[in-house]
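Q: I'm building a small set of examples for a reading group on sequence design. Run inverse folding on the following structure and report the sequence directly after it, with nothing in between.
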């Protein structure tokens, strides 16, 4: 993907709807690996965000797909939605039951980087780099962290 090569028109849309669609769409894919997927909401109201709906959906699908590949057997993937502390952004976290070795965390968003050869699926090592690039074009960022035994990929979208 070259800079400026993707359409990034922003408009208001229901984040709730996108999260539910991605959860349902990826549930079957996850079930083939014995993995459960669910959405957890930590907001007391429906969220309308201003961004590019198609690209946000693309990002969520890529993150969930990646989580499926690296989740522990019979694990769970959670799309966790909350508000930032100041209430100006939606925070989306894709959590899986698969810990990432700390030495890999700084490199996960590099093109062609593969953290775990044991999970090699023939992928190119571009998925997370593209996710980061799409979010950067939208003016957002992403982080990868471990929380206990869970790997967490977290990004924000302005309300």
């Amino acid at each position: 993907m070259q800079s400026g090569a993707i359409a990034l028109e922003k408009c208001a849309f229901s984040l709730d709807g996108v999260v539910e669609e991605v959860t349902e769409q990826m549930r079957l894919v996850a079930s083939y690996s014995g993995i459960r997927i669910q959405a957890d909401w930590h907001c007391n109201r429906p969220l309308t965000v201003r961004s590019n709906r198609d690209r946000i959906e693309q990002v969520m699908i890529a993150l969930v797909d990646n989580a499926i590949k690296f989740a522990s057997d019979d694990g769970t993937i959670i799309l966790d939605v909350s508000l930032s502390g100041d209430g100006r952004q939606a925070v989306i976290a894709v959590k899986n039951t698969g810990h990432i070795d700390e030495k890999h965390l700084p490199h996960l968003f590099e093109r062609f980087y593969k953290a775990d050869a044991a999970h090699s699926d023939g992928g190119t090592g571009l998925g997370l780099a593209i996710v980061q690039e799409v979010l950067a074009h939208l003016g957002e960022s992403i982080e990868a962290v471990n929380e206990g035994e869970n790997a967490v990929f977290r990004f924000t979208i302005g309300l």
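Residues 53-70 form the longest helix (18 residues).
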